[in-house]
Amino acid sequence: MRTTVGYRRYGAPTALRRVPVERRDLRPDDIAVRVDYCGVCHTDLHAVRAHSGEDAVLVPGHEFTGVVTEVGPAVTRFGVGDPVAVGNIVDSCGVCAMCRAGQENFCREYPTLTYGGTDRHDGSTTLGGYSREYVLRDGFAYPLPGGLDPAAAAPLLCAGITVWEPLHSLGVGPGTRVAVAGLGGLGHLAVKLAVALGADTSVISRSADKATDARRLGAEDVVVSTDPEQMADARDRFDVVIDTIAVPHELGPYLRLVAMDGTLSQLGHLGPVTVQTLDLLVGRKKLSSAGSGGRPATAAMLEFCAEHGVTADIELLPSGRVNEALDRLQRNDVRYRFVLDMSDLG
Questions:
Q1: φ, ψ at 10 (rounded to 5°)
Q2: What is the SS3 assignment for 150?
Q3: What pTM does this model have?
Q4: Do 104 and 135 belong to one domain?
Q5: Residues 201 and 271 in one domain
Q6: How confident is the prediction for the chain on average, in pLDDT?
Q7: Are 63 and 159 in contact (CB under 8 A)?
Q8: Residues 6 or more apart from 216 whose CB is under 8 A from it?
């Protein structure tokens, strides 16, 4: 085993503590990555708040960039010093229909997650990127294209690929009318990517407060969801609605904005939903979802972002302020993604 430094939650306290973190010795197809920047995701917040049990150990973090520091003897894709990016999946079965289709995110045996997952070789629990080093299979790391700021690129590996998956699979491009509901960590990247794809892009928000920001990101219009007149005017208007709202909410009002044969892709709230069949029936509307992305899509998304200059709007904090970042994220006090600078770990 090898030892690095990171932020762990032990048992009941919700605060993370800086402690030594063990990593495995490199297997033949492994690389070791010095983690330089790690995004702070709502999933991290939920995991830290929900984690319990005196024996439970958690190191969050599943969207990070860094540099390769060591490679296993079978690795040919990377060399020491290469800049890389890592997302929320670090292994999969590799043989099921989904893995063969390049959709490792839908692995029939369930993918190995970057933290809180089960290692497919030794059964250990994976510990995430809130640490100075991470060890993983080389096939689940991605070359970080030149020109992408490594700090602002880190959230692309979770929030970015989560919204890229439906935008790409639904064929969003010039002439497509897209609306993004919710302008947060997911939503602001959905707007940037839809605009870069050439879509006519709008934002749906509970108030007009974010109208200036929405237009700065490239949106052409803002629909205020609490204004009945604006919602009525926008009925049947959009080919694709990307719903990034993270709390329980009614889907009906957003389905009514979808044009005939269009799609509402629900990404933000992953709990139970209730749908009136008539909201789907009138106009042959579709309801879908997506989660992360497979390796081909993730690599393509990074190349697209490099070509079009798309990165997250971030607030960069020293990693020692990780608990502050989580507390502020709980209050939605960020525009639009926290990223931790891990260099203060040494």
A1: -110, 130
A2: helix
A3: 0.95
A4: yes
A5: yes
A6: 95
A7: yes
A8: none
Which pLDDT band, with edges at 50, 70 and 90, does 52 fall under?
low
Is 179 in a helix, a strand, or coil? strand
3-12, 98-107, 113-122, 203-212: range with lowest mean pLDDT: 3-12
Residues 1 and 24: beta-carbon distance below 8 Å: yes
* Amino acid 290: pLDDT: 87
Do the Cβ atoms of 54 and 38 come closer than 8 Å?
no
Which ranges in 76-158 belong to alpha helices (H)? 97-100, 150-153
Pairing of strands 258-266, 286-288: parallel
Which two structure tokens, joined as six digits, stand for 11? 């048992």
Q: Which residues pair with 263 in a beta bridge?
A: 240, 286
- Tell me what percent of the residues of the chain surpass a pLDDT of 70: 97
Q: Write down the number of H helices and E strands in the chain.
A: 11, 18
The helix/strand/coil state of 56 is coil
Average pLDDT on 180-192 reads 97
Domain containing 6 equals 2-158+293-345
| 244 and 267 both lie in a single domain | yes
Token pair recorded at residue 195: 């605009």
User: Same domain, yes or no, for 243 and 281?
Assistant: yes
